[in-house]
Amino acid sequence: MTDDRLSRSETSDSTTPSTSSTASTRSTTSGSVPATFQTFIYTPDESVSEAILDAVASVTDSDPIELDPLYYTIDPDALDSLFESRSRTTELPRDVQVTFSYVGLQITVTAAGQIIVEDEGPDVD
């Protein structure tokens, strides 16, 4: 799994990422906790679960094979099934998204073809 199938896009604000293929890391400050995120674009012909692993591997600078299995956190088959409609004629509404935690990161997958990987920040008790 390589970044060949995944392109990064720079975000101009948290609600409307562009689709350029430049590297994207953005830091925002909400109160006193900074958050860093990167947005990746996945294509309709690829498995969203594999694209998530590729994106997380890119952010964490690791091999996707070395990551914890995605199924420890979320059902990858259900996730793939939900978002595979992007490649069919019946598309999901573009505002559909799924957000979950995985290996200390917050992952958001959108029906618009984005995977947003965000640092969850420090643990709060």
UniProtKB/TrEMBL annotation:
Membrane spanning stretches: none
Compositionally biased tracts (Low complexity): 12-32
Domain of life: Archaea
Annotated segments matching region Disordered: 1-35
Pfam families (UniProt xref): HalOD1
Every Halobacterial output domain range: 45-118
InterPro entries noted in UniProt: HalOD1 (IPR040624)
Stretches with biased composition (Basic and acidic residues): 1-11
Protein name: Halobacterial output domain-containing protein
Native source species: Natronoglomus mannanivorans
